[in-house]
Amino acid sequence: MLRLWMTLLLAVATPAALAQPYPTKPVRIVVPFAPGGGVDVTARILAQRLTEGLKQPFVVENRTGASGIIGTEAVVKSAPDGYTLLAGSQTTQAVVPAIYKDQVRYDTTRDLVPVAEIARAPFLIVVHPSLPVKSVGDLIKLAKEKPGQVRFGAASGGTPHMAGELFKLAAKVDLQFVPYKGEGPAISDALGGHIQLVFSNLPVALPLAREGKLRGIAVTSAQRVPTAPEFPTAAESGLPGFDAFSWFGLFAPAATPREIVVKLNAEVVRGLNAPDTKEKMAAQGLFTTTAGVDDFGAFVKKETERWAQIVKEAGVKPE
Prior knowledge:
10 strands, D-Maltodextrin-Binding Protein, domain 2, alpha/beta, single chain, 2 domains
């Protein structure tokens, strides 16, 4: 008789447990890069908003290595229950899989589901003051006069690197790429005149440009940046149609229940629309964007195809 009562109690309790609203425990947001970069900054701002909104801790975990492959693969292999998420970008979704084909053992379009876009970040094209260049038109002219002699630096495979490769393709010029371990060393060498050109994240380059230590010539986004209105876009100053920016988003393992994905998307959108969140993002040179699950999925698909094609056309190889 006791066993019968226990069975009945479990039968009643199990549906109730399953019906508990998500989340019921802490959620991990895996950042596949080191602390301090764009992906990490956006993930930490977002984690705070999600913690406040969903009443459970959203904890950022940096799992670095192999150009983001290690952290991304860890999320791919996680249970699709909404408790392990990936803070990704076009680097993790398109660029790295295209460059490191032999090392990537997952398919980002098949093994991850887009949840929500978080932010976008344009770059500022900066040159050493000794370079006789004050506009994108000047840069293109000089690069054509001296093919292979203008050197630009970036972390290999990162979005600033890919912005430079896109510039080369669009302008039909030959710039010499110099690989670095990160943006900091590239900027340091640009300040020292060892390289002449950097496609730099706005928060890093803007103070240096305004102080005259480097010369800013254009932003890479299709529209001017409100926080740096003095700089024209590359598109309006010699390279029509040019548009390059970093974007950051939240992803979950494939087969994560649709209702969890939709709930997370709604909470991300609500958090990003908060004025203080917008201010925090803007202070980092980031601009919040909000879209539904399907719209973000379509954007990711388009961007994945675009950057993979750029990698192929530019002939970018593992360093």
